[in-house]
Amino acid sequence: MSEFPKVELNAVVAQVTETIRERSKASRADYLARMGAQAEQGPHRKTLPCGNLAHGFAACGTTDKELLSQSDVPNIAIVSSYNDMLSAHQPFEDTPKQIKKVIAEAGGVAQFAGGVPAMCDGITQGMAGMELSLFSRDVIAMSTAIALSHNMFDGALCLGVCDKIVPGLLIGALSFGHLPMIFVPAGPMPSGLPNDEKARVRQLFAQGKVGREELLAAESASYHSPGTCTFYGTANSNQLLMEIMGLHLPGASFVNPNTPLRDALTAAASEQVLKLVKSGDDYRPLAQVVDEKAIVNAVIGLLATGGSTNHTMHLVAMAAAAGIQLTWDDFSALSGVVPSLTKIYPNGVADINHFQAAGGMAFLISTLLDAGLLHEDVLTTSTKSGMNAYREEPQLRDGKLQWVPGPAESHDTSVLRPATDPFAADGGLKVMKGNLGRAVIKTSAVKAEYRVQQAPAIIFHSQAEFIEAFQRGELEKDFIAVLRYQGPKANGMPELHKLVPILGSLQDKGFKVGLVTDGRMSGASGKVAAAIHVTPEAADGGLIGKVQNGDVIRLDGEQGTLDVLVDEAEFASRISTMPDLSGNQYGCGRELFAALRSQVTGAAFGARSFDFDVDEGKQ
After folding, report:
1. CB 548: neighbour CB atoms within 10 A?
2. Residues of the chain with pLDDT under 50
3. Which of 138, 238, 517, 576 is the most exposed place for a label (fewest CB within 10 A)?
4. H/E run at residue 441
C-alpha cells in the first residue's frame, strides 16, 4: 500500500500523453521490437568467437578474465565524457576507478568502454568552434554507439553533464536500449560570484564602462572550480531531465563534486546497475524506462522550472531515438497547464545550489505529483518503483547512504514554490506561430512588460555585424533585430549570447527591443523578448529570409504569435536575400561537418542528422 494518496492525473497531461502514444504507435512498436530482438540473444559476450572474446579482455587482470569467460557474470560498460577543460566533466577523472572497484566488490566486472567528445559552449561562444556545438551531440551519440558496439556488456553507466553531451549519450544509448543504463552526474560547482552581478558586469563591459580586466575577474569569480556552472542553463536542465525521467538515482543531480555524498551516490549507481541486468531479478532495460510517460514527465519538469530552450530540440531528438514522436505542439499544450515553480538565474537571482538548498528535486517532484502533473507509474532505475521514489533525497548517516523523505515545504519560496502557489500559472516556454513560421520564446526570464514588442526590423547575418552596428551607435532606438542564416543548415546553429548584454543594456535605456532568429540562445536566454529557433530556417527557404530593413515585426510572447506586418501579396512576391555563407564552411574543423549540415532536420524536428523512422510531416 503506497503511503502517498492516489492523485488523478491532470486531463491535459493525460491527453497529451495519449496523443503522443497514438502518433508514435508504429515507430515505437518498431523500436521496441528491435530492442526485444537484441535482448532475446541474451548476453552477447557468449556469442563471441574465442578470438574476439580474447581481444575483449586481453588487458584485464586474471580475475576479470576468469569472470568474463562466464556468460552469467555481468560486465558493465563505462562511457565517459571526461576531460580536463570542462569544469563540469573534470570530476569524472577518477570515477571509472571508483566504479570498477565497487562493481568488483559486488562480483561483477566493469570496463571503460569508450570516451565521448565534450566541448564547452562557454569557451566557444562567438567563436568558430561554436558552429560545431550542436552537431557535437550527434557525434557523441555515434561515439556512444561505438563504445557499446563490442557486444561485451550487460549494462552501462553513462558519465556526462553538459549541453550536448547528455542528449548525445542518451541518443546513442537508446540504440542499445535492451541494456539497463544509469546516468551518473558530477554535480554543480559551489556558488561563486552571484549571477546577477556577473550579468551586471557584462552589460557594463558591453557599454564600454569597464575593461577586460574587470570582466575577466567577474567571470573567473563566477566560474571558479570543478563542477557544473551554477546558472540554470542546458547543463543543469540536463540533470533535471535525467532525474525526472528516472535515469539518475533519486536526488543525484545537484550534489557538489568531490564530496562524500557525491562519491556515495556514484557507488550506489554502480551497485544498482548490476541489479538491473537481464540475468538478474529486476531487469530494467533502457528502452522500457524511456517511454511516452517519461518523455512527458521530462517536458513538464522543463516547463515547471523554465529550463533550457535547447531542449525544445534535444528532447524531440531523444524521444525520436526511442521511437517516440514529440512535437512543439506537445510543449505548447503542456505549457498551458504546468505552473512556473522556480526562480533560478537567468529566471531569477538564485543559482542551482540555492534551488537544491530550498528543497531541490525531491520537493519539485513531490509538488508536481501532488498536483497530478507527473506520471507516477513509470519504470525508473531506482530500487523502488515509480516516481514516488524521487520524493526522497539522499543523505549520509553514520557514513552510510540512505534515502529519506524530502522536505514537505520549500525552505525558500523566493526560489522554489509549491504547485499550489506558483510564480506563474503557466510554464516558462512558449511556442510561437505566425507568418514567419514557428519559433520558441523563453518567457520566464522576461518581465511581463517586455514580452510584447512591435518595432521596425534591422537585418543582420552575423553576431559581428550586430556588435559593429552597436559600437557605431546605430542601435540607440526601437527595433527588432532579425539575425538570420544562423540555423543548423546555414552554419550549425551557434548560440548567440554575445547579443544578450547589448540588447539588455538598450532595453534598460528605455528602447523597445527584441530578437528574431533561426539561431539559438539556449538556457542562458536573457531578459529581452527573443523568438528563437525560427523554423523553417532562412537557409531552408524560411520566410525569415524575406524580411527587409524597416519591416514592422510584432513579437507577442503573451499570445505566442510572430508576424511581419507587411501586405500579404507584397511579402509573397519577395525573393529571399541569400548572403555568402562560404566563410563558415571551413576552419576550426567545420569542413568535417558538411555532411551533417546538408542532411540535418529543422529545429522543430530536433535538428538531428539521424533518420529514426519518425514522420516529420506530423510536426
Report:
1. 14
2. 1, 616-619
3. 576
4. strand 437-442
For residue 57, what pLDDT is reported? 86
How far apart, in Å, are the Cα atoms of 546 and each of 131, 359, 549, 569, 577?
A: 24, 48, 10, 13, 6
Which residue do the cell numbers 510543449 mark?
331
Residues 6+ apart with CB under 8 A from 465: none
What is the phi/psi pair of residue 261, to 5°? -70, -40
CB atoms within 10 A of CB 78: 26
Return the ∠ at Cα 394 (arms to 391 and 398), rounded to 5°: 140
**Residues 6 or more apart in contact with residue 457 via CB below 8 angstroms:** 479, 480, 481, 482, 516, 547, 548, 549, 550, 551, 552, 553, 564
Q: How far is CA 597 from CA 143, 166, 422, 609, in A?
A: 19, 21, 41, 8
- Closest by Cα among 241, 225, 198 to 497: 198
CA-to-CA distance for 583 and 128, rounded, in angstroms?
A: 10
| pTM for the full predicted model | 0.94
Note whether 154 and 278 are within 8 A (CB).
Answer: yes
- The amino acid at residue 183 is F
DSSP string, 311-355: HHHHHHHHHHHTT----HHHHHHHHTTSPB-B-BTTSSSB-HHHH
Compute the Cα dihedral for 290, 320, 366, 372 and give only its sign: negative
Note the pLDDT tens digit of each residue in 244-288.
999 999 999 999 999 999 999 999 999 999 999 998 889 999 999
